[in-house]
Amino acid sequence: MDNQTPTATDVLGLPPKKVAPWDTKYAQPAETIQTPSVSAPLTEDIKNPFTDTQNKAASFAYRQLKAIEETDALIAGGYNPSTDIFNYIASGLPDIFEGLVTSSEYKQWQRAVTDLSTAQLRPETGAVINDSEIVWIDETMWDKIWDEPPERKKKREARYRAYMGNKVVAGKAYDRLVKEMEAGDQEKIQNDSLSALTNMYNKGQLNEEQEAKYLELQKLQKLGEQ
Questions:
Q1: Which residues touch 103 (CB under 8 Å, ≥6 apart)?
Q2: What is the pLDDT at residue 38?
Q3: Which contiguous run of DSSP H or E holds residue 204?
Q4: Is 33's pLDDT higher than 70?
Q5: pTM to 2 decimals?
């Protein structure tokens, strides 16, 4: 039998020119349409890579921390909610009279109570907070009239655990939020200070040395804004 030189058709597996259309030996796979897909990392918000749950937990934890700091400062300043009988009784008056009668320390304390409590109950109960839940957190986390020091200490620890719980859920989102908030606070302090100096400059209340430093500060600020 003569050896025949293979053709390109043989090497590539192409069907002969006269192949019958029903010959399945040379059937080709159906053409498929590839749909391009975007990978998950490309669809993330680069500026805020955290989940909605983490972002909310970070916000709740930060509010709770500030509430704890405020109540700790009040206690360090001598305020004792467990013996504040006058304000406790006055709180039962109509709102218009309560605001006139109660002390500033009592109002600060109650504002901190509201901030920490709602920040704790919101992720646990959703949008609606029931009265029974408010009573529960009030009894377990906040000082009541005639509470002894050991009981007050336990409630303070409960407040801190609530804060830490939200902080853990938030993860790195909490660190990011704190950094942003502190940067905002620092900027506000700087702006307030500059505004006060500007007011003194306009009124001629700065001496020659202070005026020179103020004008130099103004130049530096303008350079920073460019």
A1: 87
A2: 41
A3: none
A4: no
A5: 0.60
